[in-house]
Amino acid sequence: MRCLALVLAVAGVLGTSACGAGAVSHRHAGPAAGGTAPAAGPFNAADVMFLQMMIPHDRQGAELATLAETRSARERVRTLAAAIAATQGDEVRIMAGWLRAWRQPPEAEPHAHDAHGGLHATSPEEAVALAELHGAAFDTRFLNVLIAHQHNAVDMARTEVRTGRNPQVMELARRIDRSRSEQIRQMLTELSSWGVPGPAKGPGSGGRP
Amino acid sequence: MRKTIMLIAVALMTLGATVLTASPASAHGYISSPPSRQAMCAQGKVPNCGDIIYEPQSVEGPKGQRSCHGGVARFAQLSDESKPWPATSVGTSVTFNWVLTARHATSTWEYYIGNNRIALFNDNGRQPGATVSHNVSLAGYSGRQKVLAIWNIADTAMAFYACVDLQIGGGNPDPTPTPTPTVTPTRTPTPTPTSTTPSGTWRAGTAYAVGAQVTYAGASYRCLQAHTSLAGWEPPNVPALWQRL
Question: Which of A35, A157, B165, B195 has the most beta carbons within 10 angstroms of its beta carbon?
Answer without folding.
Answer: A157
